[in-house]
Design goal:
Radius of gyration: 18 Å
CATH superfamily of the largest domain: P-loop containing nucleotide triphosphate hydrolases
Distance between the termini: 20 Å
Strand content: 15-25%
Bound molecules: guanosine-5'-monophosphate
Structural class: alpha/beta
CATH architecture of the largest domain: 3-Layer(aba) Sandwich
Order of helices and strands: EHEEEHEEHEHEHHEHH
Helix content: 40-55%
CATH topology of the largest domain: Rossmann fold
Strand order of the largest sheet: 2-7-1-8-9
CATH class of the largest domain: Alpha Beta
Length: about 200
């Protein structure tokens, strides 16, 4: 059976990266590593946080249909690699994508059964504090990210689940609870293979 595809979206600095790391450490989910033309931040590694590509490399992948989806964000390109996602799902692995809201909509067009989880900090003030504390963005980029966040929250209604990242431990548990519930969901392919097993026994 093909694996499930989880998408975790939410404003920049909502805590997606931190929560994904914890969920990956505590479950057998696999993270799909995106490609970007953004420069690595201190401590980021090629192939771990992102595949850091040049503009030319990124465009070549678009032309070769190498992306499930790709968007332009804050002046840089970001994209989910077909190779990374489909290979994992074909092995029956459940995959998680940590991408923005535009990307979430595009993934749902290609994978209608994907599960969309929206992550948000408890207040806009807390979001701003987290972006500023990260200390990696200049003022223009901070304002850009806050503006994008105001737009993104209007999309919550199209998502399947909302996780509020106030207390990190609770947010991690909530995300894991969504994953567990979705794994127990009755699905047609699951039913027929179980019927088959019971018929044979
Ligand atoms: P950052 O530059 O802070 O790492 O990421 C900026 C935004 O791009 C975040 O909201 C992040 O989730 C999103 N992002 C990262 N990878 C992808 C991707 O492959 N596709 C899309 N659509 N968004 C992505």
């Amino acid at each position: 059976m093909a694996g499930l595809l989880f998408v975790i979206s939410g404003p920049s600095a909502a805590g997606k990266g931190t929560i994904c790391k914890r969920v990956l450490a505590e479950t057998d989910l696999e993270l799909s590593v995106s490609a970007t033309t953004r420069k690595p931040r201190p401590g980021e590694e090629h192939g771990r946080e992102y595949y850091f590509l040049t503009e030319e490399e990124f465009v070549a992948l678009i032309e070769n249909n190498g992306f499930v989806e790709h968007v332009e964000n804050f002046g840089c390109r970001y994209g989910t690699l077909v190779s990374d996602v489909q290979e994992r799902m074909a092995r029956g692995k459940d995959v998680i994508l940590e991408i923005d809201v535009q990307g979430g909509y595009l993934v749902r067009e290609k994978f209608p059964d994907c599960i969309l989880i929206f992550l948000i900090p408890p207040t806009p003030e807390e979001l701003e504090r987290r972006i500023r504390n990260r200390g990696t963005e200049d003022e223009e980029s901070i304002q850009n990210r806050l503006q994008t966040a105001r737009r993104e929250v209007k999309c919550i209604k199209d998502y399947d689940y909302l996780v509020i990242n106030d207390d990190l431990d609770v947010a991690v548990e909530d995300t894991k609870a969504v994953i567990r519930a979705e794994r127990c969901r009755v699905a047609e392919d699951k039913c027929s293979s179980i019927e088959q097993i019971f018929k044979e026994s």
